[in-house]
Amino acid sequence: MMKQYIEEAEAALLHTYNRYPVVLDRGDGVYLYDIEGKKYLDFAAGIGVFALGYRNEKYNDALKDQIDKLIHTSNYYYNIPAIEAAKKLKKASGMDRVFFTNSGAEAVEGALKAARKYAYLKDGCRDHEIIAMEHSFHGRTFGALSVTGNPHYREAFEPMIGHIRFAELNDFDSVLAQVTDKTCAVILETIQGEGGIYPASEDFLKKVRTLCDERDILLILDEIQCGMGRTGAMFAWQRCGVKPDIMAVAKALGCGIPVGAFAMTERVGSHSLTSGDHGTTYGGNPLACAAVSRVFDLFEEEGILENVNRVGEYLGTCLDKLAEEYAFIETVRGTGLMRGLACTIPVGGIISRVLEKGLILINAGAQVIRFLPPLIISRENVDEMVGILRECLDEAEG
Ligand SMILES: *Cc1c(COP(=O)(O)O)cnc(C)c1O
Question: How far is the CA of 272 from the CAs of 116, 245, 323, in angstroms?
């Protein structure tokens, strides 16, 4: 049955992904089921999206209610879910102004536009530069791709937007070396996700923050993967108190409804994008914002951050133990429920094998196994995951 659907998919969809040979059908809690009824423990959460787990009744009901009321209005009018969602995002982040988008890449686009406009309003010049990090990932649209530090993703699509300079994460001197009179922003992921789970160090973030303050450069933090509770703080930058001027968020923001946002401080909000500068037809529509609004409520009601801190630490301990046992595991990176097992061998085979055994994991680069489970997982789920993974690590070693 599955084989036939896969053939149909390959005949109809543009081949931009090498998909795993599984047709997923439904989810329940931290488990997914394929159309043949096989059960999978999910440690990827749709790439860090489904934080609340599947079939969360309160979340689903909020969406169903909103569907029956009003799904879309356009941004020419106000709607209550968007107002509620914006207020809750402001409160959780300490940012002052929010723009809702439909994806992460679009949130990055908006952040870049806001930064350029901020600089343009200061000096009227049109040649401002942005510093981004090597090995970063910010999305697939032209602006976001232009600041993505992976030449392989960019090459066939050159030219990029231009005036982008790259520095090394956690090497402050390399950032300093790229600063010019034209620099308007530094953009970085607080924890690099796709690049292999590399956290920005507190020291590095603090130095970049100080540099930005001294030169009136805007600090844009991409919290699309590491934000929304994944590290045990609502946003990863809150763990070290380095506040961005602009923040991009998406993935778990809507827990499955396609929605993102960029948010900024009042200082940037009142000196950048204004009427007519930016827009979106769908962005911030009542359905997406009903999801966002409910997600923030449920994070509090269900004690999500507490769970991440508890179970995240346990996950770290378990992964450290694996790293000690297997010679081909180099190190464990990350924090909370965003972790990477960095190996000295390609991990694609291991990920395919755990999938056969009913465990969903993903990679981050060729040699890193990535762990982004729903934020509701328990220690027992971690034990179950480690059990399956261990079998496959044994095979890889043997
Ligand atoms: C996923 C991701 C993006 C892009 O988000 P899309 O919704 O896929 O456009 C940008 N930045 C980071 C850090 C991401 O993890």
Answer: 8, 12, 47
CA–CA gap between residue 237 and residue 267 (Å, rounded): 19
Determine whether the shortest distance from the Cβ of 105 to ligand 1 is under 6 A.
yes
For residue 139, give both structure tokens: 């999305």
Please indicate whether the domains covering 2-56+303-397 and 70-301 agree at the CATH topology level.
no
Is residue 362 exposed (0-12), middle (13-18) or buried (19+ Cβ within 10 Å)? Answer: buried
Q: From the alpha carbon of 222, which atom of ligand 1 is closest?
A: 13
pLDDT digits (tens, 9 = 90+) for 251-286: 999 999 999 999 999 999 999 999 999 999 999 999
Q: To test ligand 1's pocket by mutation, which of 112, 138, 190, 255 has the most ligand atoms within 8 angstroms of CB?
A: 138
Residue ranges covered by each domain of the chain: 2-56+303-397, 70-301
pTM > 0.90: yes
Ligand 1 site, residue 137, Cβ cutoff 6 A: yes
Burial letters 209-245, b for 16+ CB under 10 A, else e: bebbeeeebbbbbbbbbbbbbbbbbbbbbbbbebbbb
Q: What is the pLDDT of residues 82-139, one digit of tens each?
A: 999 999 999 999 999 999 999 999 999 999 999 999 999 999 999 999 999 999 999 9
Which residue's entry shows tokens 């600089």? 119
Compute, in angstroms, the gap from residue 103 CA to the centroid of ligand 1: 7
Distance between Cα 225 and ligand 1 center (Å): 7
Tens digit of each residue's pLDDT (9 = 90 or more) over 131-172: 999 999 999 999 999 999 999 999 999 999 999 999 999 999
CB distance 103 to ligand 1 below 6 Å: yes
DSSP structure class, residue 341:
E
Residue 200 Cβ < 6 Å to ligand 1: no
Measured distance CA(288)–CA(286) in Å, rounded: 6
Does the domain at 2-56+303-397 match CATH 3.90.1150.10? Answer given as yes
Closest ligand 1 atom to residue 144 Cα is 10
Whole-angstrom distance, CA of residue 338 vs CA of residue 196: 11
Does 250 contact ligand 1 (Cβ within 6 A)?
yes
User: 70-301, what's its fold?
Assistant: Aspartate Aminotransferase; domain 2 (3.40.640)
- Distance between Cα 334 and ligand 1 center (Å): 17
Question: With a 6 A CB cut-off, is 254 part of the ligand 1 pocket?
Answer: no
